[in-house]
Design a protein that fits this description.
Blueprint (H helix, E strand, L loop, with lengths): L3 E2 L8 H11 L3 E4 L5 H14 L2 E6 L2 H12 L8 E6 L9 H14 L5 E6 L4 H10 L3 E2 L8 E3 L2 E2 L3 H14 L7 H9 L4
Parallel strand pairs: 1-2, 2-3, 3-4, 4-5, 5-6
Antiparallel strand pairs: 7-8
Length: 191
């Protein structure tokens, strides 16, 4: 099992957001790029000291640019992990092509040599899953990211998303990583 927690959420003092990381020492945690430059730098340094892999959740190009600057300054080591987040709502009007274009734009902008994955995608999630796999990215799935297995069908559990993604990986000749392999990929950051 890989344990990942968030430093995002509602506004709170940075120490309050870091308390779970200090206490639980997860494998990974989101590096909130929406704070002040001082908070972001402090959080990145704290994660580095604790051996927690930072996950850069990039909701837009500005967040990617901010994260790239952290990498250039050595505050986030390579390979950095970018989590490209799409469509927080469930009723987006974006077409698959519009979201694909945005994904390509973000992938091209991330720091060279970084690992990237995608989550969410609302009604376009299935098509974006296929595109992500074909482009060499990774995918985070589960009920936190999407409640619908199809536009009309509520998922009963996160396992349904995992099973569908495993089937897609097999069909697209992408190896499904074991937990140990995934940990090794992400842990290469701090070792």
């Amino acid at each position: 099992m890989i344990i990942q927690i968030s430093t995002g959420g509602p506004p709170a003092p940075v120490e309050e957001k870091l308390a779970p990381i200090r206490e639980l020492r997860p494998d990974m945690a989101s590096l909130n790029i929406r704070g002040t430059p001082e908070e972001i730098e402090y959080t990145a340094n704290t994660m580095k000291e604790l051996g927690v892999v930072p996950i850069i959740e990039a909701f837009n190009m500005e967040m990617i640019e901010s994260a790239n600057a952290l990498i250039k300054r050595g505050l986030v080591e390579q390979p950095a992990h970018f989590e490209l987040v799409f469509d927080l709502g469930t009723a987006s009007e974006k077409t698959v092509l519009e979201e694909y274009d945005e994904m390509i734009r973000r992938v091209k902008a991330i720091f060279p040599g970084s690992i990237w994955s995608r989550n969410r995608g609302a009604h376009n999630q299935f098509a974006l899953d296929i595109a992500t796999l074909m482009l060499g990215g990774h995918i985070r799935v589960g009920l936190e990211d999407n409640l619908f297995l199809t536009p009309e069908q509520l998922a009963r559990s996160s396992a349904e998303f995992v099973k569908r993604l495993k089937r897609l990986c097999v069909e697209l000749n992408r190896k499904v990583a074991t937990v140990e392999e995934a940990k090794a990929l992400f842990r290469s950051y701090i070792e």
